[in-house]
Amino acid sequence: MDDGVEVKLDGLDALLGKMSAITGVTQSKAGRFALRKAANTIRERAVKNALRVDDPLTTEAIHKNIVVRFDNRTYRQTGDISFRIGVLGGARALRSSRAQRKSERRRARSGRASLAELGEIAGSGKGNPGGATYYWRFLEFGTEHAPAQPVLRPAMNGADMEVINTFTTELERAIDRAMKRAQKKGSIA
After folding, report:
1. What angle, rounded to 10 degrees, do the helices at 115-122 and 98-110 form?
2. 118 strand-pairing partners
3. For the residues of 87-156, what is the DSSP string, one character each?
């Protein structure tokens, strides 16, 4: 299942003209800044959705674990700037095998795995601001016994003009700042 979102922007000739006047490094920094701002608007929507499904009687809070992270792998492989929006501790594999847990404890005792790694393997999630919220995926996609209560998907489905406008205005501001800095240095006439 591919849930990627692709946006095509038309009518930005002035912005493209400004981008050609600055260097690639500055373009990358300005693009990263603007894309982070746009991703944060999507994150804010996801936080609002998570507040709707979070149980106030527990110490875990999904909304505290929703983060925006720069996608380094995509940038290294393709040069494209990309951000990931997700839940901390959300990719934890669920351990059900008694033999696996025993093996992990043995590794920790023998010095081949630190106690911090063991805690991460066991999925304590205590280091996350919202606690261990690995169960968010059960809410997001549902189970055979419980219907889905999506948090992230509705936030992404709303990738509308608000997100696009945030991106374009922040990119234009960042490029203007970069051009002013370049003019002060004397590299742009």
Report:
1. 170
2. none
3. ETTTTPPPP--HHHHHHHHHHHHHTSS-HHHHHHHHT--TTSTT---TTHHHHHH--SSS----SHHHHH
Find the range with the poorest average confidence among 83-87, 116-120, 174-178.
Answer: 116-120
> What is the Cα–Cα distance from 42 to 97, expressed in whole angstroms?
37
**CA–CA distance, 98 with 89 (Å, rounded to integer):** 21
Is the pLDDT score of 131 beyond 90? no
Do the Cβ atoms of 13 and 109 come closer than 8 Å? no
Model confidence over 7-54: pLDDT tens digits? 666 666 666 666 666 666 566 788 888 999 999 999 999 999 999 998
Tokens of 6: 């692709």
Token pair for 174: 């960042």
How many whole angstroms separate alpha carbon 185 and alpha carbon 178? 11
Closest by CA position to 187, among listed 16, 21, 17: 21
Question: Is the whole-model pTM more than 0.90?
Answer: no
Rg (CA), the chain: 21
